[in-house]
Please model this.
Amino acid sequence: MAAVPDELKVTAEEYRRMVGREKPPPPLLQNALKAFFSGGTICLLGQVIQNIYIAFGFSPEDASNPTVVTVIFFAALFTGLGLFDRLALFAGAGTAVPVTGFSNSLTAAALEFKKEGAVLGIGARIFSLAGSVLLFGVVTAFVVGLISALF
Amino acid sequence: MSVKVAQQSIFLDPAPSLASTATVAGPMEGAGPLGSDFDFLYKDQRAGEKSFEAAERKMLLEACSRALEKGSFGLDTIEYFLSGDLLNQITVSGYSAAVLGRPFFGLYGACSTLALALSLGSMLVAGGFAANVLAATSSHHSSAERQFRYPTEYGFQRPPQAQWTVTGAAAAVISATGEGPWITAVTTGKVVDLGEQDSFNMGAAMAPAAASTLLRHFEELQRSPDYYDLIVTGDLGAVGSKLLRQLLGRSGYYPEDNLNDCGLMIYNPHLQKIGAGGSGCACSGIVVLGHLWRRMKQGELNKVLVVSTGALHSTTTLAQGETIPAVAHAVALEM
Model:
């Protein structure tokens, strides 16, 4: 709903072009490099954790579940300590794409809404950020599962 | 006798005085270049409270009581309390008004609240409806972040044009008597919407509103930008400030060094990771009532035009695909 007063010698269309010129471009290459190395480091640590579980007698397949749980735990811990958001400011997709991002979105929401009560606060709103990941993840898994079962 | 000179502007006569001001701020604002101009700095964002919302309320009340104390005004001499903030239903102001117990006008102008409160407060005083009124505003980085964006501990990369909400509160006693700075003229802005939709680019959404109000002010009061030692916009940041200059240029106004932005003054952009500058009600609040008020008192500035800018969207309207309407109000301060 545009509202352009007479004293402004500009149209909404022209202004959109002006904004496009002045808006600083996101540092894509820099962000990609940071994400590559920080995300890679997280995955490397995950592999170290998995190897530790294997050394304790887990089979390589069985070791992946406790590994994911461990990484989720540390991401949640770092969120609670107030360090994760600072890390993510640097790492971007490097922390968002691995399971650390999922853990952070749950823990951050839980911390934020804790003061609104256990049921209506934490319970109702813990998935406020991660909810769509779950929904579309489950739906996609269902569709892919159906396709693989049929063909 | 005050007179409305044209559609949007009023000359106030007798001009009310900004008799006493006080500002409080958070740790990041204290570490910025204007840190020493604020009356009290909190070491911790929570200010010892259990929530960020409670912390913001504590800051607003602290600014109010300091403003009263510094000017030796008893609470019973305050005839109206005008205040606004960014939180839903302006709860910081409403809850604080419950503590102060004075007749209350709750204002919503988003980050334009400082100029809005000073405009209405000075009209009340110049119109003879009150001898002293208290005008105040506040914002808090974390309470605003959680309402308008994500939970505070959620990790994400901010785009370079994003601005940082200022944590702090500012209050002023506007009085019929005093030694200045005087509020001599008020230009009330219209809501302007040129179609910006990026909630991380508030400066771009608000620059047209600032331009509109400034152009009306210059035209209706027949003043050029040179009339003022300093014209400060509220929180346009780096991107919005450039756009404002371009918009003014299209109408033949080319202000030079005397045009600045509170959002560009409050932090040190090279040392503090604040993106394109500060924002929030407290941005123009603490810069004007803390830093500029002192410089006017010390005689370094004589004529200052304050143009606080506010974006009038909500998370719901943006999620539904609407654009960001914005408003700017101008208040002329003179020694």
About this structure: Residues 39 and 97 of chain A are 8 Å apart (CA to CA). The first helix of chain A runs from residue 12 to 22. Chain A has a mean pLDDT of 93.
